Queue: 2 jobs
Job 1
Amino acid sequence: MKLRLVELTKRFFSRHGSLLAVNNVNLEINSGEFFVLLGPSGCGKSTMLNLIAGLEKPTKGEIWFDETLVASASKKVFLPPKARNVAMVFQSYALYPHLTVFENIAFPLRISRTKEHLIKESVQKVASMLAISELLHRKPGELSGGQRQRVAIARAIVRKPNIFLLDEPLSNLDAQLRTSTRGELKNLQRNLGITTLYVTHDQIEAMSLGDRIAVLKDGKIVQIGTPDDLYECPVNPFVATFVGSPPMNLFKSSISYDKGSFFIPVGNTKIKLPENKAKKLKGLKSKHCLIGIRPEHIYINPTSTKQPLKGKITSIEPMGKDLLLHISIGENEFTAVTSKKRFKEFEIVDVEFDMEKIHIFEIQD
Amino acid sequence: MIEERFKSVLIWIGCVFIAVFCLTPFLYMIVISLSSSPDFLTKLGEIEFSFKNYYSVLTSKSLHFVDYLRNSIIISGVSAFFCIIIAGLAAYSITRLDLPGKMLILFFVLAVSMFPQISLVGYLFKFMSSLGWINTYFALIFPYIAWILPLSLWILVSYFAQIPKDLDKAALIDGCTRWQILLKVIFPVAAPGIFSVSLLSFIFAFNEFMFALMLTIDYRSRTIPVGIALFQGLHGEIPWGNIMAGSTIVVIPVVLLTIIFQRYIIQGLTRGSIKG
């Protein structure tokens, strides 16, 4: 099912004033797509999920499921969750503690008065799909976090929802389980082909799961794109630092123009911009820019370099396969990732920036 | 080491003192109820063991003990039942729905419950007389519901507030109406709270004295606390043995209820609904 949000806005009112949680969001999610809403806490991503589920009424705008209008502030249309056939998995799992796993999964079917033999059949089917058949007679209190997670997912998919909503479902799991569950979740979604909306603040989760990702900030969509789009071409410094780990290095710089070429100063050295990057700068209004470069695009002690940059290692973080180096060049601090070993703190090293991979963001005056 | 030991001895002495202090009257009550002597303050050595008092309390028609007991159980049971239903609905709406001024309602209810009973009883008497309800079950059931409600409401609100809101959301998405959420999710999850509040309400109504004294006249509606207090012999003497036997019997349902429901009260049913 295709999901369409048109100028969706949600404003909360309280004694202390009002809060714009979702601000004029336009979004189209294709049928069968795995779509991720990524953003820091408090950016309105969970509110968006609640609006789509029918737990909140929009202040403005419309929500469409295919050609059905499910919520509209101006046309006074509001379908309750029951009529939307959406399923949701919560961060807290929200299993019914007084019911067995079987009854938990069967709950939505019982509410819709499904026939007993059909309930049994469907519950057993999803239970075997999620490998929880042995747990059906237990209570949620007797399950581990990972098992509860599976029960919550089983309860969500048992009645074949139109849209599958997940609100940070993996954040209560330990790191190892999170990685494995992530893979399973992706496979499950592929096999079922249900349109899925996944909310998270973890960019690694977003990158590995999403067909497309929307980055949100302060209730607004900052950028929509595939994981590669976000990584390769972030539209602004926020996306640039939010996506990718360790985050992109950003430093303020003023670009200078000399003999037909553009240069950026780093420490005491001026580095020439390559032609294709320089071309884009023609339209630049301000000379003051933020220059971004990812840690993996900073090379340490290269065999030959045209940039005579010297940097001092201020600290070293071993990460197993790689080393994370904190390097100071002039008054700027950079992090760099290298697979080379044997560095000492306070050592002076040669540094080279991969100028093809740098990002230039204009600073609005 | 010595200090540790001294501390634990002190704690033991304290515990024993409190237990003796609280339980001695009960012990005395049981001893007197089992004695055949008609006097209250007989020397312990002269007491003769007999079930005479129990027998007379349970069989003597003029004492109406069984009538009082039946009245008490019916009135307390009905009051507790309605109290739980009203308090349950109120607690659900206060913790879950977007009501304006809901804290104000809660504090207003609390304030009302602060009135001393004696300040209400005169008005209640007038009211019940004009309704013609004096000496009926209704005369006690209605005031009891109103009188116990604030306590039940406050306990249930704090209980319901602990139930994660995600459960409501999950139930809404699973297709429940508000009523279904209340009946199929909130009430079962809050079962320990509901049980303890029912028990408390029952005991409160069961023990109530003043309203019962003022609003009832005879065995047709009089409850057990008033009944026992007004036990009188044929010639106006105070039958201590009967009073003690009656009191001992009356303690039994309350103790039984506590023992039966203890399990439910302690059992942490919310365990496992969310992480942790």
Job 2
Amino acid sequence: MGAAVLALLMYRGYGALAGIVAACLAGALAGLFTGVLHTFSRIPALLSGILTMICLYSINLRVMGRPNISLSENLGHRTVFVLLRDAFPRVPEVYLRFIFLFLLVVLVKVMVDLFLQTEVGLSIRATGDNETLVATQGIDPNCMKLIGISLSNALVALAGAMFAQYQGFVDINMGIGMVISGLASVIVGEVLLRGRTIFMATLQVVLGSVVYRLATAIALNWGYNIGFKPYDLKLFTGLLVIVILSFPILKEKLGRVK
Amino acid sequence: MLRLERVNKYFFRNSLDERWTIRNLTLQVQEGDFVTVVGSNGAGKTTLLNLISGAYFPDEGRIVIDELDVTELPTHRRALYLGRVFQNTSQGTAPSLTIEENLAIAYLKGKPKGIRMALNERMRAIFRDKLAEIGLGLEKRLKDRVGLLSGGQRQALALLMATLAKPKILLLDEHTANLDPKTAEIIMELTARLVGENHLTTLMVTHNLQDALSFGNRTLMMDEGEVVLDVAGEERKKMTIQELLERFTLLRHKKFAEDRVLLSSS
């Protein structure tokens, strides 16, 4: 959704920043839709998300008007990366991209950390922890869920918009399997880092997704030595998530045998 | 203060499994009353509290708190008038949050939530004082996650959270039932103190008949969704557990049956 809205705006001649802002708003709106499915229609959370995504597939096609849009500079599109390159012409582009994305991630992490410590942020966390308590303390759990899902989906859209600019094009299929990749990233992060504070939790997510992407890049680049083909990637991700999710139960069962 | 008018509640209504859990119940609780509620299994004690707190809605009748009709209000909209502690020691607190974060939720009850930091030093000082009064040493553990605490400590914290915003009515649902006798005693003392200090109108469901008679100023006995016995004043002061059970048998032509009561009164 984020990438599609960004593409539309840039295609229509708006700047990259306007595209990013609009993408985030559209993402929040999609999140709100998921939230309403979950809170009002009482559809389970994961299914609500899947339903929204299947609806979005068609909506994205309508937004873009065709399955893919190029954001190439040759077509006059100036992505944030092009803007950056022009602003700092002496810094090599590879470093520039890295530094910019690193700073962006740090900024988002700090903002999320701070938000989760505000009154609303605390209420959202408490809702995830104990809904009954939250209601008896005068907070509407559904309202907190809607705020939480909207904000997180705005972040997802931001990611989509940035990724589209990074790769220079938007494709209708770029979001497929992203839920599982995200899940894998979070799990990898939790395995790598311990700790339950907010600071550690967001660090887990950031580090997890970087390590996950590194692992897939390694598999794609050098995996052919052991017969790994690019089209095996989804299988690899799926198996990774399955193994890690089954791990606690396997450990318990094996522990009992001993 | 609290008034229930001809309240009826059915479960699985219009099905083969229909159960009439609260039957034409009318109840008036005065301001400052500390009412204890006893009854056999399935008598409707917890359903009564769930109706008052808004977890369930009555099929018929009205519920009025301080002249305000709350019958149709969802839990979070009537929460300001109510504080509640549950039997399950993990229900009254948020286990992944720290002690200070839990208390902040209770402290901010009824205030609009904004994008301000939820905690500050002034609040922490208040929390430390309140926790020190409980006397369990929790004031030194503000940043510990509540999941690390024992059942008794969690229940003490839940009590503090339920009373922090000074509700009009405190609902206690067998809040000492899952604790060992020694801890249960400590929690009951704390309950009596917090109720006294804050002048709270209280409704306490308990399976402990001794507690039911020694705490509070009025005792209700429930059976099959009705209040069958309502004692207060001099009559109650002189009453023993034995008399209470005999009165029940006389009224209902059956024995007061609850495993836990039988065990604890033997």
